[in-house]
Write a structure and sequence with these properties.
The structure holds three protein chains of three kinds. Chain A is built from 13 helices and twelve strands. By secondary structure, chain A is of the alpha/beta class. Chain C is built from 13 helices and no strands. The chains are: A alpha/beta, B mainly alpha, C mainly alpha.
């Protein structure tokens, strides 16, 4: 990985949840990097730890019961995990913005939309109400909200889902952050709105040279928007590569099976392929490689030893003992 | 494929997964809470005290061996002893006769002017009131009044509330509108005042009117609960299916829907009993409760009004008893509430 | 609202009609045994006239609308006890009850809201658990017992004498200046209001706590934190504003309890409010007063319910009031 353009580097991040029923290791030894102006897609099934990873970067994990037990999160060379809370707050919303999955519930219902955007601005940049108002209007135009002056005094419930998500984006970007974390921003929206929001994000990225950490479970969205991809399974990164390489040549059995299970319009098949078994509970992981109970290539070593990420080709890392054989064995 | 050894995931052996009935689950969750369980035990003890009052506080012996015969005066009335003053009788017990006395050898209504307003002592653990009656004995018998009024009044309230709430919730539309108005009207009235008004209408006051009055004024909470639940339940698939099958409404309501709604009703009932006990003592305190000389905790407190500064025991003990019983029922209610709450289900 | 009003008046009317005895003979019987002893035609005349006056000569179904009409004119009739117009008696008593109620609601919210917020934010901590236990105990204490304990230790007993034993004002209060009168009134009402209110701390603060905890779990709180807002702002601006909403509806629930509970408290502290009035009226079988108190309290409660509905619409922008 090139060292110069990394705005964010996550190294060996582990977040655990300490509950009555045991320790849930939601994120285990996760490492990735974000480059300026590029999008990293963080993909995985529900429960694999991708959201918790994002929240860990922002240090928004509820403590108790969650805690970041190891790792570094370097934002332009400052380790966020070591910052006192007061300073971390200056990072949140101003240097890193975050948008969430359900825009309706993510906006405070009792404050106007304009108020909430203005608040995001004033808390970091100060300034008078008039300044903040101008800035809010400007952002609303940037995110393509029609009739911004009118919408300023609207309440969240008066807007459509797509409009609400644009408001969230405006709020997240009003302080011109270097990084935007988007946690499944289009999952709760209609397909047509989804593509609008995605193209908006692409334009904004180009305009502001933002790095985007895009979390999703939808491989199609990843293909459309990401430059690089990291596939997560059960708290770990299974495979990471740039998007073209990943789609052309996935080397982890899980990734291959994921691609196979997507229904395709141009193939005639009677049954949908599924990955047999279910995602393990984060409290009781299988030993060794967490995927081994469901993996068609599993051998004794997989049961015993956890595979680490290995560079199979430049920029393409895979965490599998049998990565060399995957292409051959899983057509 | 390859000859790779594939590990299969193990399922728990059949039969180890147990299905618990709803009430078993509730009971299990309830007993996990220490305070509530203690409260339940305490309440049990209180109920026992109330039931066995004649054997705990009485001037008549439990067992009497006299002139060759064995008698149980605290249980039965005997022709030979109908006019006996047991206190005098026990004082002048002839040799050869033997009696087993209750632990508190006083009857709640026996007066003793020479020993009025006595502070607690070895003779009278809780002192005496202004007519010389033993306070501890009155307290024990008072438990009967408080508990029975509590249970019956709440029983009445729950019955009325469930019926009205069920019909309002199930039939909806006009029935609901009408019944909701009724509920609203009753809610608007100041409860206590309404009860004393109803009681004032009665010529001769007795405990049954008391139970009735408290019950008829306190059903609105349960009604709203049940109404809310049924309004939701009637839209669920099982209810629609039952309707489609032609099951008569009353059967649907009572057999299929109400059992689901009973949890919160039980919680409400427990708090209701606490409230009824408070109500009864309040009423007795003001003179609207059971007529004298029947002992009631509230009545003793009422007496205390005139002697607040001189006879602290008349205020302390009945008040503490009322407090403890209310506390226990409230704790039970709390415990039930958490036990019944589906959101807290693991 | 109208049907409920009709319901209230109807129920009051019916209940009172069920009372044993004829109000006239009762009243006359109360005024002196001598009257009831004589059975001369003169007495019969008086009785007939009285009945006509009270509308008792008309059949039942006519009496109700007649009474209703009088009610609308705020004519509550005359008290059986002292023949004074009930309207005047009410005018005397109502202000005190309203003062007590306002003070009580104020005290309830001022104590419960901070307690609830504290319990929510510090859920599980030692201080929160202790608070919960104390509040629970308070909730279970019978008010008349507490009243006497307070009186014993703080007023007339052998200990401190911080508060007066009873009454709503000192006897000479009429001659006080406005400021002094206010202080004197507050001082007198302190104990009764406390006795009336302490029971609601537990419920109200628990309600606030649950509401607050629910709100703190919401997504928009996470968003607020992601914006970099201080925890203080998150709780007191974003969370509070949302948790206040259900609290407002509780207002309607507090009011009926106040008038009812006041009966005992006012009697113990000898405060001349509606509660004591109602109690004495029931004791004396003074039906015009009883009916007036019942209707008035019920109507006030209804007004309270309406008020809280309106407040709810004001406070929650999602509600459209029509």
């Amino acid at each position: 990985m090139a060292e110069n353009e990394h705005v964010l580097e996550v190294r060996h991040l582990s977040t655990y949840f300490f509950t009555d029923r045991g320790v849930a290791k939601a994120v285990e030894d996760v490492s990735f990097a974000l480059e300026r102006g590029k999008t990293l897609g963080l993909v995985g099934e529900s429960g694999c730890g991708k959201s918790v990873t994002a929240l860990s970067v922002m240090r928004l994990v509820a403590d108790p019961p969650g805690r970041i037990v190891q790792g570094e999160v370097l934002l332009e060379r400052t380790d966020l995990l070591k910052l006192p809370e007061r300073e971390m707050r200056t990072v949140r919303g101003s240097r890193i913005g975050m948008i969430f999955q359900e825009p309706m519930t993510s906006l405070n219902p009792v404050f106007t939309v304009g108020n909430q955007i203005m608040e995001a601005y004033r808390v970091h940049k100060g300034g008078s109400r008039a300044e903040a108002r101008e800035r809010a209007l400007e952002m609303m135009r940037v995110v393509r909200i029609p009739d911004p002056e009118g919408r300023l005094s609207a309440y969240p419930h008066e807007l459509s889902g797509g409009m609400q998500q644009r408001v969230m984006i405006a709020m997240a970007l009003v302080c011109n952050p270097t990084i935007l974390i988007a946690d499944e921003p289009t999952t709760a929206l209609d397909v047509t709105i989804q593509s609008q929001i995605l193209s908006l994000l692409e334009d904004l990225q180009r305009q502001f040279r933002m790095a985007i950490l895009f979390i999703t479970h939808d491989l199609a969205v990843v293909a459309q928007t990401a430059h690089d991809v990291a596939v997560m399974y059960a708290s770990r990164v299974a495979e990471t590569a740039d998007v073209k390489t990943l789609f052309r040549r996935p080397l982890h059995p899980y990734t291959r099976l994921l691609f196979r299970s997507i229904p395709r319009g141009d193939e005639r098949r009677k049954k949908l392929d599924t990955i047999k078994g279910t995602v393990p509970s984060s409290i009781h992981y299988p030993s060794g490689c967490k995927f081994h109970p469901r993996c068609p290539l599993a051998v004794e070593r997989c049961r015993v030893e956890e595979p680490l990420l290995r560079e199979m080709e430049p920029g393409h890392f895979v965490a599998c003992h049998r990565a060399e054989e995957v292409e051959e064995l899983m057509k | 494929m390859t000859e790779a050894a594939v590990k299969t995931i193990e399922m728990p052996p059949a039969g180890e997964v147990q299905h618990q009935s709803y009430w078993r689950l509730v009971a299990h969750e309830f007993f996990k809470q220490r305070l509530s369980t203690i409260a339940l035990i305490a309440t049990g003890a209180l109920i026992l005290v109330a039931i066995f009052a004649p054997y705990l506080a009485n001037n008549a012996p439990i067992i009497l061996k006299y002139h060759g015969g064995t008698y149980f005066p605290s249980t039965f009335t005997y022709r030979e002893f109908v006019t006996t003053d047991w206190t005098d009788f026990m004082n002048a017990l002839p040799t050869g006769a033997w009696a087993l006395m209750p632990p508190v050898p006083y009857n709640p209504t026996q007066t003793d002017i020479f020993h009025r307003l006595q502070a607690p002592s070895s003779g009278h653990i809780m002192g005496t009131d202004d007519l010389g009656r033993d306070v501890f004995s009155r307290m024990i018998w008072g438990a009967r009044i408080s508990l029975s009024v509590g249970f019956v009044a709440v029983g009445i309230a729950v019955f009325i509330g469930v019926v009205i709430g069920a019909f309002a919730g199930y039939f909806g539309k006009w029935t609901d509108i009408l019944l909701s108005r009724v509920i609203e009207v009753v809610i608007c009235f100041p409860t206590f005042f309404l009860i004393i008004t109803i009681i004032a209408l009665v010529r001769k006051m007795n405990i049954y009117y008391l139970m009735f009055a408290i019950g008829i004024v306190g059903w609105t909470g349960v009604a709203r609960l049940v109404r809310g639940d049924l309004l939701k339940l009637r839209e669920q698939d099982f209810a629609v299916a039952a309707r489609a099958l032609g099951v008569p409404p009353t059967r649907i309501i009572f057999r299929h829907m109400l059992p689901n709604a009973l949890g919160p009703v039980l919680v409400s009932a427990s708090f209701g009993i606490a409230g009824a006990i408070l109500m009864e003592s309040g009423l007795s305190f003001l003179g609207f409760g059971v007529p004298p000389p029947t002992p009631s905790w509230g009545a003793i407190l009422s007496l205390a009004r005139d002697y607040v500064y001189q006879a602290w025991w008349l205020t302390a003990f009945p008040g503490a008893a009322i407090f403890v019983s209310i506390l226990c029922y409230n704790l039970i209610g709390e415990g039930l509430r958490d036990a019944v709450d589906p959101r807290l289900r693991v | 609202m109208v049907p409920t009003l009709i319901g209230i008046t109807l129920v009051t009317f019916v209940i009172v009609q069920l009372a044993p005895g004829d109000p006239v003979t009762l009243a006359m019987g109360m005024q002196g045994d001598s009257l009831s002893a004589t059975r001369g035609t003169a007495t019969q005349q008086i009785v007939l006239e009285q009945r006509k006056l009270l509308g008792l000569d008309k059949p039942l179904w006519m009496r109700y609308p007649m009474w209703l009409g009088k009610l609308a004119m705020l004519d509550f009739g005359r008290s059986f006890k002292d023949q004074r117009p009930v309207k005047d008696i009410l005018a005397e008593r109502l202000p005190i009850t309203i003062q007590i109620e306002l003070l009580s609601v104020f005290l309830a919210y001022v104590i419960s809201i901070p307690l609830g917020v504290h319990s929510a934010v510090r859920a599980g901590s030692v201080s929160e658990r202790i608070t919960t236990v104390i509040l629970f105990i308070l909730y279970s204490l019978p008010s008349f017992w507490v009243a006497y304990i307070l009186l014993y230790f703080l007023a007339g007993g052998g200990y401190w004498h911080i508060f007066p034993i009873g009454g709503a004002s000192a006897p000479e209060a009429a001659s006080y200046g406005a400021g002094k009168w206010l202080v004197d009134r507050l001082w007198h009402l302190a104990l009764p209001v406390l006795v009336l209110t302490y029971g609601s701390f537990a419920g109200l603060s628990r309600f606030m706590r649950t509401g607050m905890m629910d709100v703190l779990r919401q997504d928009y709180i996470r968003t607020a934190r992601a914006k970099g807002l201080s925890e203080r702002t998150v709780i007191f601006k974003h969370a509070m504003r949302n948790s206040i909403i259900p609290i407002v509806t509780i207002l309607s629930g507090l009011l009926p309890g106040l008038i009812g509970g006041a009966v005992i408290t006012e009697t113990i502290f000898n405060v001349r409010g509606m509660g004591q009035l109602g109690y004495n009226a029931v004791l004396a079988r003074d039906y015009p007063v009883i009916m007036a108190v019942a209707v008035l309290s019920a109507v006030l409660t209804l007004v309270g319910i309406l008020l809280s509905d309106i407040l709810y619409a004001v406070v929650d922008p999602r509600i459209k009031y029509d």
